[in-house]
Amino acid sequence: MIGDGDLRELYQEVILDHNRRPRNFGALPAANHRAEGHNPLCGDQVTLFIDVADGTIRDLAFEGSGCAISTASASLMTEALKGRTVDEARALFRGFQELVTVGRAEGAAELGKLEVFGGVRQYPMRVKCATLPWHTLKDALDRPDETP
Amino acid sequence: MTLALEPQPAPLPAPQPAPPYDLAAVRAEFPILSRVVRGKPLIYLDNSASTQKPRAVLAAITGCYEEFYSNVHRGVHELSMRSTQAHEDARARIARFLNAPSSDEVVFVRGTTEALNLVAWSYGRTVVGAGDRVVVTALEHHSNLVPWQLLCEERGAELAVAPIDDRGELILPELERLLDEPGRPVRIVAAAHVSNALGTVLPIRLLADLAHRAGAVLVVDGAQSAPHMAVDVQALGCDFFAFSGHKVYGPSGIGALWGRAELLAGMPPWQGGGGMIAAVRYSGTTFAPPPQRFEAGTPAIEAALGLAAALDFLDEIGRERVAAWEGELLARATELLSEIPGLRLVGTARDKAAVVSFVLEGVHPHDVATILDGEGIAVRAGHHCAQPLMGRLGVPALTRASFGLYNTLEEVEALAAGLRRVRQVLLGDS
Fold first, then answer.
1. Where residue A128 sits, what CATH number does that domain have?
2. Radius of gyration (Cα) for chain A, nearest Å?
3. Between chains, do A68 and B367 touch, taking CB under 8 Å as contact?
């Protein structure tokens, strides 16, 4: 539906769909880790809620407002991380950062659906939009468990 | 009585307004306008951020370097004398551009931001004391806000902000209230001539009268007015006026501050160095008179010449005619964009420069700008260096299309078509 190569790469159908209908959107009362992320350049704002038990992400959700790239990134991230261990989540963050900045090395582990963000690399100004939810994730995981 | 046997002529379509100058010839002077961006001809609608440069400006810079470049005010050799002369001619050209009484009132600076900082740090520090007030408007760019904020923090003074209404116009009675409050002497009023984010044109003459009545001076940020309208600092009645070269089709890294001679004369230097001194002794230094007092170090010599060439270029077309054509572009853009579903124009002042800022419901400005970029259309998305203004308007960010003397009605139509495309891509319009 978008004619041009780079733009079609950026706004892939999966991204547009997750922007229109973000998954895991809303507060998560059971969360024991949470963090807020801001992109002062464009006003993107995301709050991330994570429920971690025994080193595994049992559930996560997000709230906020932002551009299509940051909203879809948050949505797809929450889908990708449910049920993963914290270590796996951190490894995925590194892989995702590679994907949107320098590109994945030959033979690197597949990132699954997250590969749709490969087109962001052609738009340096938008990399921060895609990585904002992931930086917020790292922030949330680095904080102490809030369980009373 | 005659019978209407002949067929009635069909009503003519409303005539397209014709540009008051040879637009094709003007466009041909800008090499970058024939560039292809992302496979499409460039449509440059980010003129409030910076403008493109005509050949005359490029030639002035190259000519300086190829023919007579040397440092200014220093040597007695031929090249230095020629460079100095050209540099001072550029100063005189700027004085003419602003209808300043004397070129000694024109200080070369890097741009509007530096000019405003100069006024804040040199003039501001001499007149603003604890408990005093500096007044700005809610329309200001960070460059005409943050220097005053810093000054007020240092001096223990109060920064007061004159509010705007929902159209983006200054609420004058509120400004007058801020100016007249007993026990709060106002020393400086700082205002944009034209708002960079909304295009609002402020009534500078009136603001000058109000400021003077309150015993304050008026500092005008002219970055957005100088490219679009005739500026006469004497008629405006302001005390300082700042503008940037790169926004008037000239080079970046150069701009000018105009200040009233009697004010400049009483101001201390704000940077020390070569070129701004009269005599230097270890026991103390005496300073050159204005404008050199405020020009420490080697200036941007070639950029000053480029700026003078840009002003020649602009005035050859005629600023009134540029304003008239940009008015047509604004009218057409306002009409076409108003027809786009979910699009809300932000900034609808009655007196407005050729800027259209808007929000498109359900679409973030960065996505708007990225998709327009895919169509070869350059617009700005973001807070436009006016974060408090975005807060006042209740939006995180805006998309802004801003027009210049080389834009065409076809480009305005391409913008409208591009915005329909944005809706298709992101909102699934058919």
1. 3.90.1010.10
2. 15
3. yes
Q: What percent of chain B has pLDDT over 70?
A: 97
Task: Say if the Cβ atoms of B382 and A42 lie within 8 Å.
Answer: yes
Backbone angles phi, psi at B412, to 5 degrees: -65, -40
Its domain, for residue A106, covers: 5-142
Q: Annotated catalytic, B238? A: no
Residues of B with Cβ-Cβ distance to A119 under 8 angstroms? none
Mutation pick from A42, A44, A125 vs chain B, by most beta carbons of B within 10 Å, is: A42
What pLDDT was estimated at residue A109? 77
Integer angstrom CA distances of residue B122 from A13, B84, B116, B117, B364: 56, 26, 10, 8, 41
The domain made up of B23-46+318-427 is a member of CATH 3.90.1150.10: yes
- Distance between the two ends of chain B, CA-based, in angstroms? 54
Answer whether B364 sits within 8 Å of A2, measured CB to CB: no
CATH 3.40.640.10 in chain B: give the residue spans. 57-315
How far is CA B227 from each of CA B7, B35, B113, B140, B328, rounded to the nearest angstrom? Answer: 49, 23, 16, 18, 16
Strand B380-382, strand B398-402: pairing: antiparallel
CA dist B40 to A10, A134, B35, B37, B49, Å? Answer: 18, 34, 9, 5, 21
User: Could you tell me the pTM of the whole model?
Assistant: 0.91
CA gap B293, A59 in Å, rounded: 65
Which H helix or E strand runs over A94?
helix A86-101
Do residues B138 and B162 make contact, with C-beta atoms less than 8 angstroms apart? yes
Does A92 fall in a domain?
A: yes
**Shortest CB distance from B426 goes to which of A4, A68, A123?**
A68
Does residue A148 form part of some domain? no
Tokens 């109060």 found at: B158
CATH 3.40.50.150, domain B57-315, yes or no: no
Q: Which residues contact A100 (CB under 8 A, 6 or more apart)?
A: A117, A118, A120, A121, A127, A130, A131
Contacts B398 to A, Cβ<8 Å:
none
Name the one residue in this structure whose structure tokens are 């994945």.
A104
- Calpha distance B51→B405 (Å, rounded): 10
pLDDT per residue as tens digits for the range B209-265: 999 999 999 999 999 999 999 999 999 999 999 999 999 999 999 999 999 999 999
Q: Decide if A42 and B370 are in contact by the 8 Å CB cutoff.
A: no
Do the beta carbons of residue A37 and residue A45 sit within 8 Å? Answer: yes
Q: Is residue A147 assigned to a domain?
A: no
Q: Band of the pLDDT at A1, cuts 50, 70, 90?
A: very low
Token digits for B29? 């002077």
Residues B330-347: pLDDT tens digits?
999 999 999 999 999 999
* Pairwise CA distance, residues B88 & B306, whole Å: 13
